[in-house]
Amino acid sequence: MNNKQGFVRKHFFIDRKMQGRYMMTLLIPMLIMLVFFLIVLYSASQSIVSTTTRIIKDEIENKIAVQFQDEQNPPVEAYQALIITLKNYIRDFSSDAKYRKAVLSSLLLIFGIGIFIIVVQIALLTIFFSHKLAGPIFRFEKACHNLIDGNYTEKIYLRKGDEMQNLAGLINDAIKTTNERITALRDAKTEEEKSKIISGLKI
Questions:
Q1: Is 50 exceeded by the pLDDT of residue 172?
Q2: Whole-Å CA distances, 165 to 90, 138, 145, 153, 198
Q3: Dihedral sign, CA of 132, 133, 134, 136?
Q4: 93-99: long-range contacts (C-beta < 8 A, 24 or more apart)?
Q5: What is the dihedral of CA 195, 196, 199, 203, to 10 degrees?
Q6: What is the DSSP letter of 6?
Q7: Global pTM exceeds 0.70
Q8: Measured between alpha carbons, how far apart are the two ends of the chain, in Å?
Q9: SS3 96
């Protein structure tokens, strides 16, 4: 029976400086997007209220004009009939096709603009992070290919602001040390010198 336990992560912050920088780089845009989304929701609610008020106002004015268009001094019955008409209209307002269409158009416009801006922001963040990581990874792969081909002279040079600067320095030190050992082994005059160099290696 295999009692070997799987890998358990004990430390979530390995490189605090780099991880903290990435957290802030992601957190700030996310907070901006959250604030923007709240503004969009507020604008949408205001748009719905404004659209609803305008439609009700226009419909009420239209019904009043139609009800009293041919009467100079409307009787009480006419006002009663108008009140009943307005009550029925307000009761059935939520299912009115014109209202639904107007509200939907307003919401689609506001949310469409909001979603477009969010997508653009996410795309820019993706490009930013990919440049910070893809460049160093490409250079590490190139350095590994050089080592496989027997080239121990090429160093890794990263741009300012690229991630994994420490790893690049470590790989450069490894290339330099390996180059020095191979050179020393090549230039050794005696078998004793070669044996001494080889004895310090784990191969």
A1: yes
A2: 67, 13, 19, 19, 31
A3: positive
A4: 93/56, 96/55, 98/55, 99/51, 99/52, 99/55
A5: -60
A6: P
A7: no
A8: 33
A9: coil
- Token digits for 103? 């509200």
Q: What is the pLDDT of residues 14-28, one digit of tens each?
A: 667 766 777 777 778
Count of alpha carbons within 13 angstroms of residue 89, beta-carbon side: 18
Tokens linked to 4:
């070997």
Q: Which helix (H) or strand (E) holds 123?
A: helix 97-148
* Residue range 75-109, pLDDT digits in tens: 888 778 888 888 887 777 767 777 777 777 777 87
The CA distance from 158 to 167, in Å, is 11
DSSP state of 163: S
155 contacts: CB under 8 Å, gap ≥ 6: 143, 172, 175, 176
